[in-house]
Design goal:
Layout: H1 3-13, H2 19-28, H3 51-62, H4 65-73, E1 79-82, H5 90-93, E2 101-106, E3 116-120, H6 127-142, E4 146-149, H7 155-165, E5 170-173, H8 187-196, E6 198-201, H9 213-223, E7 227-230, H10 238-248, E8 252-255, H11 266-273, E9 277-278, H12 282-291
Helix pairs in contact: 6-7, 6-12, 9-10
Length: 292
């Protein structure tokens, strides 16, 4: 790990320091060579919510607790990718406020895949959702499409497991860190993906997942993908946040039509009504991906 990566990781894990603070620090000190100067953070005091947040960040920067944690990452096969690294996903780099750091376990080569498809949907997936994924994936996998999802219950889990079963490749993006997989029922799946596929997080490995992290996680799912497929979604659903983020970044959004009387299809039907591409077969997706 080079010195810049070590310093940026340390900075990113300090309490009270967010995306904008790091942005302004990097503008002033691109190599981060000055961050350990005792009063360095005080010139950014207006970016902190309160003096208490500034004091916490300054304490974390001067203490050796975080550097000691960082030392153990390589021993645990955790790779740190900064926004300046060559292996940082280009598609994600082009999004609004891309993560400064990605923590990764697994096959980093997947980040350079030509076609990554985000597949998201309801946590209460029905047999219809299962059937759709089982029908679509064989041809997608055959055409080297990498499946990206959030390791959540329901459609996410079905997407990861089906990609693996079909001999394909899959990337999981999680809220929280690698030591606190959510939901716990997916711990075995997560560890399998860490060994054979790829797991990503923008949060330190010992971070517990927080509710606000899931919408943030969604922007990475859509950000590393060429397009997003919504399989099943209620009218108010986290999957629609992912779709909205994808649209804001100029990415394609695909949706599976469903029974108009089924609440699990309200969100997807509405997406189609608003202009998302209606998907009936794998070729509908491949046509768009190959065109792009």
């Amino acid at each position: 790990m080079d010195e810049f990566t070590r310093r940026l990781t340390h900075l990113q894990q300090c309490r009270g320091i967010g995306w904008k603070t790091i942005y302004h620090i990097l503008k002033l000190n691109p190599t981060l060579s000055q961050i350990y100067d005792h009063n360095f953070l005080h010139q950014f005091s207006t970016l902190f919510k309160s003096p208490a947040f500034l004091n916490s960040a300054n304490y974390d920067l001067q203490a050796d607790t975080i550097p000691k944690k960082i030392m153990h990452y390589e021993k645990n096969y955790i790779k740190i990718i900064t926004v300046a690294d060559e292996c940082y996903p280009q598609r994600l780099q082009e999004t609004f406020q891309p993560p400064w750091i990605l923590y990764a376990k697994g096959n980093l080569a997947l980040l350079k895949s030509k076609h990554c498809l985000a597949v998201v949907g309801s946590r209460q997936a029905t047999s219809y959702g299962h059937k759709v994924i089982h029908n679509l994936f064989p041809k997608l996998i055959m055409n080297q499409v990498v499946i990206v999802s959030g390791l959540a219950a329901g459609i996410d889990t079905i997407a990861h497991e089906t990609a693996i079963k079909e001999g394909g490749r899959t990337i999981g993006v999680i809220a929280g860190g690698f030591s606190h997989i959510y939901p716990k029922e997916n711990t075995a799946l997560a560890h399998y993906m860490m060994r054979n596929h790829l797991l990503l997080s923008e949060y330190a490995p010992d971070s517990k997942p927080e509710k606000w992290q899931f919408p943030q996680r969604n922007r990475i799912i859509s950000g590393i993908s060429s397009a997003t497929l919504v399989v099943q979604a209620k009218k108010r659903s986290g999957s629609l946040i992912t779709a909205s983020t994808a649209l804001n970044e100029g990415r394609d959004v695909f949706a599976i039509p469903g029974n108009v009387a089924d609440p699990q299809s309200e969100g997807t039907n509405e997406l189609i009504q608003k202009g998302a591409k209606l998907i009936m077969k794998a070729e509908d997706i491949l046509e768009e991906l190959n065109y792009k």
